[in-house]
Automatic annotation (TrEMBL):
Domain RNA polymerase sigma factor 70 region 4 type: 133-183
Name recorded for this polypeptide: RNA polymerase sigma-70 factor (ECF subfamily)
Cited NCBIfam families: sigma70-ECF (TIGR02937)
Entry keyword set: Sigma factor, Transcription, Transcription regulation
Molecular function terms, GO-annotated: DNA binding; sigma factor activity
Sequence ranges assigned to domain RNA polymerase sigma-70 region in this UniProt record: 34-104
Keyword Transferase in annotation: no
Any Pfam family hit: Sigma70_r4_2
Length: 189
């Protein structure tokens, strides 16, 4: 890795998307800053989907190797949350790959982490933003429908990405998303 680009102070003030573009040019300091900023929240999100700390650590490492190699393919902007979505897409795909590798070589992968005794930040934010009838309707959804909604709405994943993350066919994801919308509409009318 070579060091090119901006000085340390400028890199620390740069938006994540700008850091990714610098990483594409081989800037090691930009890569280190991107890692410092994003590794903690990526780790938390991965742990919510996998209870095995070793798999989470391996996936995090694979994610940043992929970021270093593929930074030139990043076309998003920070205005639309592009860099965070791009990073999460890479991480979630690496997690699915890790589950598949483990399934081929051993027993099934560990289930997603048990729900914590205190609600996750996503759930608190959702409850704060979604209360009353809407919150009640969400709580009454079947778990498999709520899981698809979480991946597609909260995590912002596409049908294909949700399919890979949950290990479901794309058609099933589409069907569950449609069923969830219909159930929500009926509950709110």
């Amino acid at each position: 890795m070579r060091e090119v680009g901006w000085g340390r102070a400028t890199i620390e003030r740069a938006e994540d998307g700008a850091l990714v573009r610098l990483v594409a040019k081989g800037d090691q300091r930009a890569f280190e800053e991107l890692y410092r900023r994003t590794a903690p929240w990526l780790t938390v999100r991965l742990r919510r989907r996998c209870a095995d700390d070793q798999i989470v650590a391996d996936v995090l490492q694979e994610t940043f190797v992929a970021v270093w190699r593929a930074a030139g393919t990043f076309t998003g902007s920070d205005v639309d949350g592009g860099s965070a979505g791009w990073l999460w897409t890479i991480a979630s795909r690496r997690l699915v790959d890790a589950f598949r590798r483990r399934a081929r070589h051993a027993a099934p992968p560990p289930a997603a982490a048990e729900p914590p005794s205190s609600p996750a930040a996503e759930e608190v934010a959702l409850e704060g933003a979604v209360s009353g009838e809407l919150g009640g309707a969400l709580n009454r959804l079947a778990p498999e429908l709520r899981q698809v909604l979480q991946a597609m709405v909260l995590d912002g994943l596409s049908v294909r990405e949700t399919s890979a993350l949950l290990g479901l066919p794309e058609g099933t994801v589409k069907t569950r998303a449609r069923r969830a919308r219909i159930a929500m509409r009926e509950a709110l009318t």
